[in-house]
Amino acid sequence: MKDAFGLPQSLLVLGGTSEIALAVTRRLIARRTRTVWLAGRPSPGLDEAAGQLRALGAEVHTVDFDALDPAGHEDALGKVFAEGDVDMVLLAFGMLGDQARDERDPGAAVRVAQTNYTGAVSAGLVCAGALQAQGHGSLVVLSSVAGERARRANFIYGSSKAGLDAFAQGLGDALYGTGVHVMVVRPGFVRTRMTAGLPEAPLATTPEAVATAVELGLRRRSETVWVPGALRVVMSALRHLPRGVFRRLPV
């Protein structure tokens, strides 16, 4: 069960090799988390991540999970919940894609959309149902400021995150009063392998900073977390700019 400050003893990570997810997990293990499930496609990277977390003192399991296989989500994730209550689910899988390539290859664009949105809807609903059945828990959804307004430079990725963000907000409303807490996390540019080589955006942050914000959000039972917090004001301004003006911005 979670403690008085909302921090979990048990954690299920969807996207078990995500640098941001692993930073969050390390921080939670340092606080209170003792059992971790890392869900992802079988790989040396997943095994390595599990080993690193075990070295921190946690009991760590891996589970085969593929965001692009919604038909298998209920079975794969159901096995985790069958082992006992899960205090927190961190939905952290996703792919950035390559905007220029994906515009030329609709199949590649669809893969981004299916991973970031369709897969998240399926897995999110499966986990939400399980959390509701046990009567408690948090579902933390890693969204992005890219979903606040589609930009020319990454509108395929941004549109998929916009869908994910709207879904998570609606799911939070649907679960209000059930004992299940949904928290949407909106980081800006995060320095990870996924963004390596890309021009760094203003207010860039790190996986560790996101992890700190997630912990604080859990303690406060926040519904939305911006990382860094200043992005809330920045994106509010950008969201309301006239389209003609927005098009001329170097974004």
TrEMBL record:
<dbReference type="InterPro" id="IPR002347">
    <property type="entry name" value="SDR_fam"/>
</dbReference>
<comment type="similarity">
    <text>Belongs to the short-chain dehydrogenases/reductases (SDR) family.</text>
</comment>
<protein>
    <submittedName>
        <fullName>Decaprenylphospho-beta-D-erythro-pentofuranosid-2 -ulose 2-reductase</fullName>
    </submittedName>
</protein>
<dbReference type="Pfam" id="PF00106">
    <property type="entry name" value="adh_short"/>
</dbReference>
<dbReference type="InterPro" id="IPR036291">
    <property type="entry name" value="NAD(P)-bd_dom_sf"/>
</dbReference>
<dbReference type="InterPro" id="IPR020904">
    <property type="entry name" value="Sc_DH/Rdtase_CS"/>
</dbReference>
<keyword id="KW-0560">Oxidoreductase</keyword>
